[in-house]
Write a sequence for this structure.
């Protein structure tokens, strides 16, 4: 299995305990010029002869909304492992009203799991996990967030926040589809704004007189 992560300047793909040594390649969607895909790949081996491979691609230019895709291909080219990462457009929404955070698999998947996590200033916390083999959902945010059980079977794992709160639900949402040879990650920053009526009641009398709220 290939893992993928993104920082401000780099996208990193890695795989551990593999044999034989795989070939690593990168691509983006929309496509990028080949010079923009120059990467640094480190290969190490353990005492059993198994390889650990880590490949790093520098993010050059304004490519934040691109999908970054790495593939690890076995030397005999019979197996390919794929991982992708996309930072989606930010979502801004007023609290108290349902909001849908998009997450769509790029292709039809079989025997996959879907995981949603949330982070603000702390470590990511699990929102829910769905397994399409059993069609079971483990929902830690029961009543607050949900999937469409019919659409998720078709690869639409979008998350519905029923009644988002500006303090509790503003942060980064990460959606991950995981299948046997593939992993697709989508990350969305969500800003839940204070409702207009709340702003009104938070105004001081002097502010109201000046009509600044």
């Amino acid at each position: 299995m290939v893992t993928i992560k993104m920082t401000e300047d780099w996208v990193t793909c890695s795989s551990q305990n593999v044999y034989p040594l795989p070939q690593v390649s990168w691509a983006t969607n929309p496509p990028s010029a080949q010079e923009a895909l120059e990467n640094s790949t480190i290969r190490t081996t353990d005492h059993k002869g198994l390889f650990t491979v880590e490949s790093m691609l520098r993010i050059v230019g304004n490519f934040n909304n691109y999908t970054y895709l790495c593939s690890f291909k076995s030397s005999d080219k019979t197996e390919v492992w794929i991982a992708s990462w996309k930072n989606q457009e930010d979502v801004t929404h007023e609290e108290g009203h349902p909001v849908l955070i998009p997450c769509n698999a790029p292709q039809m998947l079989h025997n996959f799991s879907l995981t949603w996590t949330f982070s603000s200033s702390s470590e990511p916390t699990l929102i829910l996990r769905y397994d399409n083999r059993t069609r079971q959902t483990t929902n830690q945010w029961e009543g607050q967030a949900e999937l469409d059980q019919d659409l998720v079977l078709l690869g639409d794992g979008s998350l519905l926040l029923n009644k988002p709160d500006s303090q509790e639900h503003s942060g980064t949402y990460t959606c991950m589809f995981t299948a046997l040879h593939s992993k697709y990650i989508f990350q969305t920053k969500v800003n839940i704004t204070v409702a207009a009526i709340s702003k009104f009641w938070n105004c001081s009398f002097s502010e109201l007189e000046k009509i600044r709220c």
